[in-house]
Amino acid sequence: MPAYTRFLDIHLIHSSGWYDMARDIAPMAVHQRDRHGLVPQCLLTIPQMVQDGGGVVAPKWSRIRKDTGYVAIAVPVPRVAKALPGDALLAVEWVCAGGHVGKIRINGHGDGRGGMEARNARRQQPEQAGAERLVAWLAMNGLKTGTPVEGRLTAGLTTLALSFCFAGRGDGSGGANGAGALNPGPNSAVAVAVETLRERGFLGVEVTGSNEMVSLSLGRFEQIVDRPALLGVASRQDVWRTEDAWTFQNRQGGGAEIRVPPDLTVRPGDGDAPARIEIPAHYRAVPVVPDEPDGGWYLLTPCYHLPPGWRVVPGTDGRPDHIPLPTGFAPATGEDAANRLVNPNATAEDDGREIVELLSHSAVKVRAVS
To answer: Rounded distance, CA 118 to CA 112, Å?
Structure first.
């Protein structure tokens, strides 16, 4: 990865000003200063009080004072969706300038279907923009590139990081989850951004993202896999949670492990079929949120709750066929390996509820070049 001299963070906010990740703005700037020596200038208001991590953010435009450094801006999603020019022109032109090495990072929510969205403080009134509109908005606000060297840019804007959940996944057609370090899923935000950059003549930009949910830890992005749970259904249809069906734990010697319940079957890859978790033929699958394949699933019966990020892929008969493995995981091998998944670079949290892996310089980061 090149040593960036100009870094632009773009926070995609709701038109009301609400931003779910408001508490992350300052740590992201501090990390760039402490880790990379990039002096920050935040052209936005950072709320002093946050609600579940969110708060009202507003642009605060001014002249960029530093020749090198870190700049953060806030842009309402509708402006991106309409590809409107505006005050962001100063920041985009700054990060794209020749004689420097620039990176743009897009922060917000991903919808798992190749797009980004923002909601208001009540998690209502969703506003959405696709990756092709993002590129169009950047183009209207000063995006420019130099001449690639052996297919890659080495100066000016070199990297476009899509740092929102599921940026490497497609639209639910299956197969995108698990594409991993080399290839974005079809119709994913990464794939669409790369294609649109090429169509507009912006060649040699590396576009990155993740197949999984992402979160910020000490200013650095990490991939997150949440643990599924076994749900029991009482006679009154009340649902309660038990914690013993799926197990997340660290492995002796390093890495993390997922133990899959015995009624499901972990299958290694064979031929064109990737490794997967096979679902019994009599099971049913119901999405937690209709028409959102990455919004979580109920798998019946017994009733497993698969949290957001886990995906159920139907077979040719429409019945649930399998669950793709979380990116970076593979079936365990050796003694006592049945129904276990391992990731040598991940870590299970102490409470066993999630497994995390840093995305920086990681093999699980999705990458493609325009």
So the answer is: 13
Report pTM: 0.91
Digitized pLDDT (tens) for each residue of the chain, 370 residues in all: 458 999 999 999 999 999 999 999 999 999 999 999 999 999 998 887 777 789 999 999 888 988 999 999 999 999 999 999 998 999 999 999 999 999 999 999 998 788 999 999 988 999 999 999 999 999 999 999 999 999 999 999 999 999 999 999 876 543 344 444 457 888 899 999 999 999 999 999 999 999 889 988 877 899 999 999 887 544 334 444 444 578 999 999 899 999 998 889 999 988 778 899 999 999 999 999 888 888 899 998 778 899 999 989 988 888 999 999 998 899 999 887 889 999 999 999 988 899 999 888 788 888 999 9
Identity of the amino acid at 142: G
What strands lie across the sheet with 297-300, from one edge to the other? 239-242, 229-233, 303-306, 297-300, 284-287
Q: Pairing state of beta strands 115-118 and 127-130?
A: antiparallel
